[in-house]
Amino acid sequence: MSNKVCVFGSFNLDIVAGMARFPQPGESLIARTSMMGAGGKGANQAIAALKAGARVHYIGKVGRDDFGQFARRHLDSAGFDAVTLFSTGERPTGNALIYVAGEDAENMIAVDPGANLTVTEQEIDQCRPAIAAADILLTQLENNLSAVTRAIALAREAGTPVILNPAPFQPVPDALLPQLFLLTPNATECALLSGVPVTDVASARRAAEVLHRKGVTALIITLGTQGALLSLDGETTLIPACRATPVDTTGAGDAFNGALAARLAAGATLTQAAQFASAYASVCVERPGAAASMPEYAEALARQQACA
């Protein structure tokens, strides 16, 4: 393994307000804090993979606007091996309005995907060498499905294993599922994919059975404080959640997926990678922001050892 992760996914500019509680419809509340920073599931997961030790090639698309210039500066300074950033003048750079509230630091997010939904198959075809050179292709559903499907097809042609984090949820054809190395839904996404309500480990196992019948070989269902359920060819393993004092849970899923991809690209088993990813995400939620909260490899390793 060459420890290379190719991430195709969204870039958004995040505007985050920290609240004592979520506002009611029609209500205005004074925020405790506010911040603006880089986000988007693709960019966040790429940063997580980088800080978790991988060599990362990030692929995304932005608008030709001020937010797009911000994206270029951020990505150029991140430390990636390579960045392929397409642009369009027809749609704005993706952006997200985020509320973080309460003692559990839960979040509500409104996203305008903008340029993220305009990636063409021809643009993805230009990325064929990067996808072929990677140990893992990591992608999500915050881009147009046609582009995601094309990236997965190129990875299959090249023999590059694909991790699909099906977030934010959009319907995917069942024919896509057998093409994946690994599917990583949270409880809500798993329920939408399988038709089985997922509230605990037992119901996650039932949902996993449905998805295996649809052709999924391996999946990890993240269940928040209940941990994560790894299901491989019908055999399940519960990955415990590491204890954390949450400040902002916005980037938890992205932290988990980026760290997971990094460890798999380094040659770890699925169980080993999931255990590290759980520890990595637990450090992430103790800090504000998404991309800015991604910990270094050594921090997550220390947390994993403390959790053992």
CATH architecture identity: 3-Layer(aba) Sandwich
Uncertain residue ranges: none
Number of helices: 10
Q: N-to-C terminal Cα separation, in Å?
A: 27 Å
Q: Based on the structure, what is the oligomeric state of the protein chains?
A: single chain
Helix/strand order: EEEHEHEEEHHEHEEHHEEEHHH
Radius of gyration over C-alpha positions, nearest whole angstrom: 18 Å
Q: Superfamily at the CATH H level?
A: Ribokinase
**Strand residue percentage:** 15-25%
Count of individual domains: 1
Largest sheet, strands/sense/barrel: 6 strands, parallel
GO molecular function, one term: ribokinase activity
Family: Belongs to the carbohydrate kinase PfkB family. Ribokinase subfamily. Belongs to the carbohydrate kinase pfkB family.
InterPro entries: Carboh/pur_kinase_PfkB_CS, PfkB_dom, Ribo/fructo_kinase, Ribokinase, Ribokinase-like
Pathway: Carbohydrate metabolism; D-ribose degradation; D-ribose 5-phosphate from beta-D-ribopyranose: step 2/2
Provide a brief overview of the structure.
This protein has helices spanning 41-51, 66-77, 121-125, 128-133, 145-158, 187-194, 201-213, 252-265, 270-284, 297-307; strands spanning 4-8, 12-19, 33-39, 55-63, 82-88, 94-101, 106-112, 136-139, 162-164, 182-183, 218-222, 228-232, 235-239.
Kindly describe this structure.
The protein has ten helices and 13 strands. The protein is α/β, with parallel strands linked by helices and 308 residues long. It has a single domain, classed as UDP-N-acetylmuramoyl-L-alanine:D-glutamate ligase, CATH 3.40.1190.20. The strands form three sheets. It has a six-stranded parallel sheet, with helices on both faces. Strands 3-2-6-7 form a four-stranded mixed sheet. A three-stranded antiparallel sheet has the order 11-12-13, sandwiched between helices. The two termini are 27 Å apart. Belongs to the carbohydrate kinase PfkB family. Ribokinase subfamily. Its cofactor is Mg(2+). It is an enzyme of class 2 (transferase). Pathway: Carbohydrate metabolism; D-ribose degradation; D-ribose 5-phosphate from beta-D-ribopyranose: step 2/2.
